[in-house]
Each structure stands twice: as C-alpha cells, then as structure tokens.
Amino acid sequence: MQRILIFGLGYTAKRIAAHLEGRGWEVVSTGRDGTLSFDDEGTVRMALADCSHVLSSVPPAGEGSDPVLERYGNALAGKWLGYLSSTGVYGDAQGSWVDESAPVGTGRRTVRAECDAQWMERGASVFRLPGIYGPGRSVFDRVATGRAHRIDLPGQVFSRIHVDDIAGAVLAALDGDAPPGAYNVSDDLPCSQNTLVEAACAMLGVAPPPLQTIEQAGLSPMARGFYAENRRVANGKAKRMLGWRPAYPDFATGLRALRATISPASDIAAPSPASGDQT
C-alpha cells in the first residue's frame, strides 16, 4: 500500500485525500481535521519516515517562510513532493494569458512565489491554482447568502478550477512520469466574475445583484486584492506533461454539476446587500 503524508488538510487537500483513499492509498495528515498535530514533531517525523510521498497545502507563514520546509525540510529527501501553490504568483497581466514561463513574484503573492521556488528547488511538483470552487464553496453559496457581487470593471477576467480537477491533476502527477516543476491547474475558459454570478443566478431563478463599483460593494481588503489583478491562466503544460484533462473544462459545466446537488431554486433566498470576500 502506498502511503502519503499531507500537510494541511483543508478544503482542497481533503478532496485529494478522498480520491487517494478511493485508490487504496493510506493517507496521514496534519491540520484541524488531520490525523496528526503539525507541532508534534516526533510523531510527524515518524510518519514521514514511513511515507514515500508528501503533499503540502500549507500557506506561507511570513517573509518567504514556509512552515513545512522550515520544520521538516530535512526529512523530505528521496520522497515524491507536491505543493499546492497559487496562480497569484504571476501578478497582474492586464488580462493577458500566462503560462509557467511567465515572470513570478511581481503581484500580491510575492511570499507565495518565494515558497513556490523553494519547493521546486527540492524537486517538487508545484500545482499553481486559481480560484477554487466545488461543493459547499461556490458562487451558489455566495448568491444564497447575499455575498455575490457584480463589479463594474470592464475587461476584468479570472481563471478558476473545480476542486475535483485539482485532485485529478495531483493523481496524474503521482501516476505518471512527468518531471517535477510548476504546473498551472486551471479550466479552459477564463471569464469575468460577473458572467459567473449571472449564470448562477439564472440557474437558481433569482435576480442578479446590481452592478456596483468596488467602493459601493464594500469589499474586504482581500476581495479588493482579488480584483487588483487581471489574467488568463493557460493549462497547456499540465495537459501535455501530466496527461491531465479537466472534467469541468469551463464554469458552465462545473456549475451544472453543482446545481444538481443543491436545494431547489425555491429554497434559495434572493440576494441581499452584504459585503464579503469573493475568493
């Protein structure tokens, strides 16, 4: 039986763990819902000694500091390494396409870019992720709670990825013989957040929220940062090198699959004015 240690069992890592367990892997993990405490160094090191694979979804802690590498980096040699990073490392591309050859470290995720590089220096497969959505974490949930916004920023686009497609990319990297390095894991069709919100509202049979400026929407600083960068993320390398294909290649496919799992439209409240993060 193959054994993997996942550092940081959050939303995405849980889905990856479920897919791995479905394939017969033994998964040990740290995090609030994990099997180990990150700070229990002796136990974690014993688990690492028994694992051939390691995946980290732990975000940076500060100025270029990666908590996993800081504490356990000397126990990772000889293992398959994976790291869940962010396409935020590319910064603002003014709506242009970016692939893995684009410069990094120029945007709001400079610390993330430093940690991304540190993992690649150790031979990790680094999965750069855009906005993540899936069951319990989608535009449908924001519409239902009044946190969906339509922002008046013509030309603004975003890339996104269904959480199960992230799991698919990680599994493809584990199964194949592609070299380590950076891989953009995004769907095929970047679009504006407004388009996404309007499509979700149409599926739910509710009116879309009004078009607003960022100031009128009362967005949090984190959400404002979301709108400060504009890019389209290319996924060609992951397709070529990993043999990966997204099961949800565009937002409409992903939304239709999620729509089939949620309450009838009559159970969804109409949007009410509220501020909130759109990530």
Give descriptors for this structure:
single chain; 279 residues; alpha/beta; Rossmann fold; six-stranded parallel β-sheet; two-stranded parallel sheet; 11 helices; Nucleoside-diphosphate-sugar epimerase; NAD
Question: What can you see in these coordinates?
Answer:
Keywords: NAD. This is Nucleoside-diphosphate-sugar epimerase. It comes from Novosphingobium marinum. 35% of the residues lie in helices and 15% in strands. With 279 residues, it is α/β, with parallel strands linked by helices. The chain is built from 11 helices and 12 strands. The chain has a domain of 184 residues: 3-Layer(aba) Sandwich (Rossmann fold). Helix 1 links the parallel strand 1 and strand 2. The strands form 4 sheets. It has a 6-stranded parallel β-sheet, with helices on both faces. The C terminus is likely disordered.
